[in-house]
Amino acid sequence: MSRFDKVINRKQTDSVKWDYTKKIFGVEDVLPMWVADMDFPAPDEVIEALHARVNHGIFGYTMPGTKMEKAVQVWLKKRHNWEIDPKTITYSPGIVTAISLAIHAFTSHDDKIVVQPPVYYPFFEIAQKHKREVLYNRLILNDDFRYEIDFADLETKLSDEKTKLFILCNPHNPSGRVWSREELTTIGNLCIKHNVLIISDDIHSDLLLFGSRYTPIASIREDFANQTITCVAPSKTFNLAGLQASILLIPNDSLKRKYHDVQQLFGLLSINTLGADAMEAAYSYGEKWLDELLPYLEENVVLIESYLHEHLPEVKIMRPESTYLVWLDTRSLNKSDKELQELLLKKGKIALHIGSKFGENGEGFLRMNIACPKDTLMAGLKRLATALT
Question: Domains of the chain (ranges plus CATH)?
Fold first, then answer.
């Protein structure tokens, strides 16, 4: 039996996923498989590090130091063959926070920001809240049911003189697509050509499935690195989102100073003490746990594929190359997203993310979180079949 097979009751822990379905979806008695956190405990070494800090009993001001920098540096080199200079590291409570501060730092009210829907919705929602115009470089589904980038359209949008920022999602959420070195090189060349800053959200980069290889765009060439702010975190990898600790890698000193000025403006200068301890422990000792997790996630993907083939052949799954999120295509059912949501919540008693949340070209899709024990996953699949048949 795998350590990930154990079902743990998360109710009455103030879990957004398990305790707030009434507030978010208007119903209580549903199985939540929507928001991107796992139903698995963090690695033992992380829990031990947190116990050690709590047992010490003093929670004064702290700041991540050289041990943390070394842990990050070693992790990125070992897992992704990416050599970084520890001086490029900056900390943030979360990547959404980091992107928001970057928008404030590097764009003005009349500037434009490019995103690639269907994509993680805070990208465009935050940009809109900052009163920036969002340009949508819509991803294209090819004949192999994989997303491709419309590079001609991307260049058109990047060439707009008011476009100052491009937000990249690598690996891509919600589809799990890992962009190739060739695709990233084309993106980098276009952003250099049109002098557009790249914010690359690489939070799912450790969760590589089925032999996929991840390339950080900043690792390809020095000029790309100087045009890129890369966001990484242990939060998805090790289920630490509630501890609010993430990293920005900013090789360009001028960009780093501008970003730090905005951090000071909003008083977001460091990260939570417990979050820092968890991050350092995860990157230092969490590799064995992750190497056990990834095959389990792959098994869950195969289980879904088999179940849908037998019980719900009208629904297609886009096999993820990364992440524990699967992108389900229900367009053949000819249901609106409102109708899908109604069927899921009231008939199937399951809460999923509706595709249009990720942009207009996400309509007819569903995002399902499969980072759960197989018993939970099977219960969710049965509820999905109940809802859609």
Answer: 3-43+288-388 (3.90.1150.10), 58-285 (3.40.640.10)
